[in-house]
Amino acid sequence: MSALTRYDADRSAPTVREAARDALVRAALPAVLLFGVVLGLGLVLTGPLHGVPSERALSQALADGRTPLMNTLTRYGSLTGSTGVIAVCTLLAVLLLWWATRQWWSAVVPAIAVLLELAVFLSTSLIVGRPRPDVPHLDQAPPTSSYPSGHTGASTALWFSLALLAQRIRSTRVRVLVTVLCALVPFAVAYSRIYRGMHSATDVAAGFLNGAVCAALAYGYLRRDTGRAAPVDDARDRTGHGRFTPELTPAPGSPTPTSPTSAFTPASRPVPLRTGRHAAAPTSAPPASAAPVAASDAGVPRAGEGVDAVRRQAHRHEDQQHPSQG
After folding, report:
1. DSSP β-ladder status, 244-246 and 229-231
2. What global pTM score does this model have?
3. C-alpha–C-alpha distance, residues 163 and 218, integer Å
4. Fewer C-beta within 10 Å: the chain N or C terminus?
């Protein structure tokens, strides 16, 4: 679970330079490999597989079964993945996350995901150049080619990154609800694009792959130490989380810390106080050179009397109180 709550486990603020370096090394460079995979799949689809003829039958079947209701619903579904809507939603998401968490370094995750997806999508689309399905189109065709689906990829990158960030919500019901809603949006966009004749099934599948990987790369772009901190209850932010303090768990090989109360536990026997080369006598016994302490009761030494004299006096006092019976 620590991977999904990595921005709560380590709330230390990075510098802009550190964040930019991590974004380059941990997100942009792996996206180059993603571009190679998506491009390779596109070249195989348009080359050896000849465009997958079975996809043409699916697109034609959806076009023949169109209804006014589904035309309206899919129009909104397709609009959700358009460039303008994605740009506005991304900006609003970044601002809202920044306000709620007070962490700019986690608030920029959706923006990084969308930018990575856009870079892979545009470069792949220009190289592959796959034509759109040969059915009536219900939307205006953009200048890019059919492979991969940019609408599906952008919506997947945005809403999947938000689903990952939603794991920080403390309420279980709200967290599950937000996660499910965010995960359903890309599927609605993908179906809408196929239904409206704008993409084949493999186009939206490649777009889904592109967006999902970009969301994962963006979420993990910043190095975090998920084992360095533990939550406390005070000073909660707007997400309901508290500030975090270092754990008290000792590192391997280090001595086990003692309990705070152990320092106040009395010792089993007095410990001599050493000063210089000599050790003082235990506090439980009087010094040998000390004079007897005066007292008024019998049996207690008086000043100047020895121990034997005191004992004899105690015996005489007892005989006077309890005379023997003969």
Report:
1. antiparallel
2. 0.70
3. 12
4. C
